[in-house]
Amino acid sequence: MTTPPLALRLVLYPVFFLLGLIAMGVAIALIVLVLAYPKLPSLEALTDYRPKVPLRIYTADGHLIGEFGEERRAVVAIGDVPVLMKHAILAAEDDRFYEHGGVDYMGILRAAGANVLGGGKRQGASTITQQVARNFFLTGEKTYTRKLYEALLSFKIEHNLSKDQIFELYINQIFLGQRAYGFAAAAQIYFGKPLKDISIAEAAMLAGLPKAPSAFNPVVNPKRARLRQQYVLRRMLELGHITTVQHEAATKEPLVIKRELAEFAVRAEFAAEMARQIAAEQFPEDVYSSGMKVYTTLLKADQEAAYNSLRKGVLDYDRRHGYRGAEAFLDTKEFDSDHDEAMDEALQEIADAGDLIPAIVLAADTKQIKAYRKGGEMVTLSGDALKFAARMLDDNAPPGKRLRRGAIIRLFKDDKGNWQIRQLPEVESAFVSLAPEDGAIRALIGGFDFNRNKFNHVTQAWRQPGSSFKPFIYSAALEKGYGPGSVIEDSPIVIPASETGSQAWEPRNYDGKYEGPMKMRTALAKSRNMVSIRLLQSIDTHYAQDYAGRFGFDPARHPPYLTMALGAGSVTPWQMVTAYAVFANGGYKVNPYIVHEIRDSNDQLLARSAEIRAGDETLRVIDPRNAFMMDLMLRDVTIYGTAARASSILKRQDLAGKTGTTNEYVDAWFCGYQMTVAGCAWVGFDQPRKLGNNETGGTAALPIWIGYMSRALKDVPIQLPTAPSGLVAYGEGRDRNYVYTENMGKIQESEPAPAEMPPTGDQLWPSD
Questions:
Q1: Is the predicted pLDDT of residue 3 greater than 50, yes or no?
Q2: Domain-embedded: residue 733
């Protein structure tokens, strides 16, 4: 046998050696495949896919308001995924997905070449199938053993599932940042819209997330997310998934990233939390992962109206009391420029408060402020936009509050789309409304901002009701034989120390004036304290205390003293709206409820609230005649009295309610109703202190109620109750009054209506 020449041997030996190594590698791989493949985990987790789906809370009309669970996920069938979303994912992650068998050898060679040329590990070559294997069965450790098992699992998955099944698993399981799992959830969280409605630009942004959800997160790193999006769009163009025109349009499209609660149709965090607690108590097992759905009694339009009205009312109050200065300060020396990405990162640490957006002041003087707002926009404020903050632009402003470079401020976009300076209010507020016929809660706002203060003022804040409690004293008086036309003295009262047990008590009217004898209905409209005290003296404090319990109040929180006539006890807005509903529905006590029904992930009914409606005589707590006469008097309050602005603005004569202001302007209330809806608004500080001079119920709380009712009653016709039997009417027009038939002989001589009583809401009685 002839020995090959030396030159040929030098060529052949390395080739044989390489072929031998390849053969050994193939042999080892075959051995591993034969030994390891049968021991691979069962694919039951894939074939019987049961993802963790969070507890979701909805309004009565089907709008999502809350979601609770470690994983925010919305499962979507592959047939319901838009083609453009599929193309974007394939372009970003695995363009040969429908061609390879689980491992893309061409992709591996391409990535290896890029890594060698790039001088390091820059590209990966994991297919969508490999990512499914990793997400369901493996850890994220970077070892050759894990990669081998990943490849073997990929072969097994490809052998047992169709490509569309694998793709569907990937689309629903992959983590995309912000606790979002799956592209359907991510579309809601980042863009506030269902997956079917996203644009090409939005699809490309979402498709860029799997590679590094934290690095390319558009909320945390908008600039890096934008670069990744541009890469995906470029790949879609190269692969022919989009045209040049579509590519150019998508590249230029501004993306509106929702940074807070984007997936929810309306702000109802306090109500959602209440519903969560109810569901967790009823079904403690797997409540946050089984896909349970809770339907509340809220109506989207009502909740939006309540939220917007409360926010406006609180911000209007805040503006009346002046700008307090910079919220905080950042060291701008840490930023390389006024467009540094670090500024965005710093602002991400400062929570939004609804439409109050944080911004960093870059330059400020008495004529102009330049600020960089969260989201990357440069904002310039001048002229009227500076008026609110003018005091803190002066050189004499306190150094720790003066607006200068580095100051954190809040920006607010007004109705005309112009940026204005605002601030986080210190005052709190609450609003709740319900349907008087059955107690279904229609709107509930437990505070100005749930993310800042999770204390639910509707159900948890025990406050003095002030004059908003007077109607229950008047109702008790009607049961004792009084009528709307009964005349009571409005003159000073002194309760001696011998009766009070401590020191003499000399209460006064809100305005410090006294008008002598007046009708009950006039006294309630004007909220005369002396009349309320005399009524309570007449009917006995213990009787009034027990009587108030009929409306749902806790008698123990309303001690049987004369101060009860001025609302010195303790109530919650939840109790107050429940109590006023009794007058609205003709005398029935309905229990308020916020959860209508609970269903499982298959939409099977698990629980439903019992339907108890006004009209069931077992629920009656006051005489229908009493309810009718109270409605008559409470309508006077909104037409001629301390809440005359309500009828004047809303142009209705079927509104009833009562203002309330506690001593030293600590709490401001307005509780009222129309026959189809009752609502209660409260304003005050968490640590009780003075709201400010003249910050009465009519000034601070009534506008919130009016704002809500303007929407809630938009298409509701005017309705007035019909007088029940057992009443005798006397007088005409505004002097028309009623009394129980059996009390007809007790009618006192009725005085004429005071000459100064305004015929319209243009002139207002002093508000309390």
A1: yes
A2: no
Q: Are residues 435 and 371 in the same domain?
A: no
Same domain, 392 and 352: yes
Q: Is residue 264 one of the residues assigned to a domain?
A: no
Domain count along the chain: 4
93 part of the active site: yes
- Please give the helix or strand (H or E) that residue 296 lies within, else none: strand 293-296
Pick the catalytic residue: 67, 93, 269, 428?
93
Check whether 263 has a pLDDT greater than 80: no
Of 154, 429, 433, 467, the active-site residue reads 467
Residue 144: per-residue pLDDT: 58
Say if residue 544 is in the same domain as residue 649.
yes
Express each pLDDT in 145-177 by its tens digit: 667 777 888 888 888 889 999 999 999 989 998
Asked if 238 and 374 sit in the same domain, the reply is no
**Residue 761's pLDDT is what?**
36
289 is known as an active-site residue: no
Where do runs of H (alpha helix) occur along 585-667?
624-639, 644-650
107 and 233 share one domain = yes
Please tell me whether residues 578 and 434 are part of one structural domain. yes
Strands (E) located in 121-259: 180-181
**pLDDT score of 757:** 37
Instruction: Kindly give, in sequence order, each residue whose CB lies less than 8 Å from that of residue 587, ignoring residues fewer than 6 positions away.
Output: 620, 621, 622, 623, 624, 626, 627
CATH number for the domain spanning 85: value is: 1.10.3810.10
pTM beyond 0.70 = yes
CB 361 within 8 A of CB 335: no
Neighbour-count burial of 242, counting CB atoms closer than 10 A to its CB (0-12 exposed, 13-18 middle, 19+ buried): buried
Q: Write out the two tokens for 622.
A: 């006051």
**pLDDT tens, 356-365?**
999 999 999 9
pLDDT computed for residue 154 by the predictor: 80
Structural domain harbouring 404: 328-422
- Nearest residue to 656 (alpha-carbon basis) of 580, 576, 574, 732: 580
Torsion of CA 625, 626, 628, 629, to 10 degrees: 110
User: Does pLDDT of 747 surpass 60?
Assistant: no
